[in-house]
Write a structure and sequence with these properties.
367 residues, mainly beta, 38% strand
Length: 367
């Protein structure tokens, strides 16, 4: 007869049971991924140019914390580096505030991410700037560039707002912004206020013919010309006249004085035009005249801006630019802010010309 074998307890293992370890990325892989990210994002930022900028109409001066600043609407397209291309809007319309004395950009605010979209500064008070855009009126806080109200958020306009730049205008005589509504009425916003109120019938009739629901205002005044007034209160003008020798250029004259014109400068500027700001010669408030001209008789590809002293006839400052002047505005101290297609320039009271660096971004795309 067979018997069952005796039962024995299993012998203890001679080897310890290994603990389960969490899987870790190998150190070489972590280092490789870090280096790849650094080269991919950092390298693309270093080798990429700054985004393209294009000035928009409607430059204006304002006062922030007791100092004059210039408000510059512009369009920025593209991105610098792969991070910006992935994380930032490719097309932006922005508004920057710069100190003309130092060139410092105080703030730079994005207004829109639309491909085709324009903004114009109508006026500024002590606290707010009023910007007419293709999406309606924007009220911007001058302290930090934040948008206080826009479109239907503007009290008194609400859903009756018109999404067109031509529906808004500045009334300088009464220090207010006038707005056309979809109901055909005209309302007014006092400077440094954020709500609109109805106007009297006479004002509504007069401004109702100027305001429009069209997408853009009428043709702006020309920014350059062959002649311009020196001061709004004077009949004296400054004129460019050809030297009469082979179309080599034009020289500056001023007059009439006792019925005759006086030559200002001996310099002949090829392809010259006077820059006009607010209806007068740019720079006249500080004793200068700003001239746009070809870089030389043989160089017609680019332009040069030259500031000429009315007292001595000497060129006190020159700066090459890529395109002709499109807009110009004079500040309270006589400084002139000038915009070409893609550059901003200051004509200073001391006779110098300085570029304003607007639109530059850091790694993350912040201005």
């Amino acid at each position: 007869m067979y018997q069952n074998p005796p039962q024995y307890a299993p012998a203890p293992s001679l080897f310890a049971t290994p603990r389960r370890r969490r899987k870790l990325f190998p150190a070489p892989l972590v280092i490789f991924m870090s280096l790849f990210a650094l080269l991919f994002f950092g390298g693309s930022y270093l080798i990429s140019p700054e985004p393209d900028i294009e000035a928009q109409p409607g430059l204006a001066f304002a006062e922030v914390d007791g100092r004059d600043v210039v408000l510059l609407p512009y369009e920025r397209s593209g991105g610098r580096g792969m991070f910006q291309l992935m994380a930032r809007d490719m097309f932006q319309v922005r508004l920057a505030a710069a100190d003309p004395a130092s060139g410092e950009v105080l703030w730079d605010t994005q207004l829109s991410d639309e491909l085709v979209w324009e903004a114009s500064v109508l006026a500024a008070g002590q606290r707010y700037a009023y910007v007419a855009t293709d999406a309606g009126l924007m009220i911007v806080d001058l302290a930090d560039g934040s948008v206080e109200a826009q479109g239907e958020e503007v009290q008194g306009l609400g859903t009756a707002f018109v999404a067109a730049r031509a529906a808004y205008a500045h009334d300088p005589e009464n220090n207010r912004i006038l707005a056309l509504t979809t109901a055909g009425t005209v309302k007014a916003i006092e400077l440094d206020q954020t709500s609109a109120a109805a106007v009297d019938e006479e004002t509504a009739s007069a401004w109702g013919e100027r305001l429009s629901a069209k997408s853009s205002p009428g043709i702006p005044p020309k920014a350059t010309g062959s002649e311009a007034g020196l001061l709004p209160s004077s009949a004296e003008q400054v004129v460019l006249e050809d030297v009469g020798i082979g179309d080599l250029g034009s020289v500056l004259f001023r007059g009439p004085e006792d019925g005759r014109k006086l030559q200002v400068s001996q310099t002949a500027f090829p392809g010259a035009r006077l820059v006009i700001a607010d209806g007068t010669a740019a720079g006249a408030a500080t004793g200068h005249v700003l001239v746009q001209h070809q870089r030389s008789v043989n160089d017609t590809a680019g332009y040069t801006l030259s500031l000429v002293s009315l007292a001595t006839g000497q060129v006190t400052g020159s700066l090459p630019v890529d395109s002709p002047v499109e807009h110009a505005v004079v500040g309270p101290d006589g400084t002139t802010a000038v915009a070409t297609r893609n550059e901003f320039v200051l004509a200073n009271g001391d006779g110098s010309l300085t570029p304003l660096d607007i639109g530059e971004t850091d790694f993350f795309g912040s201005a």
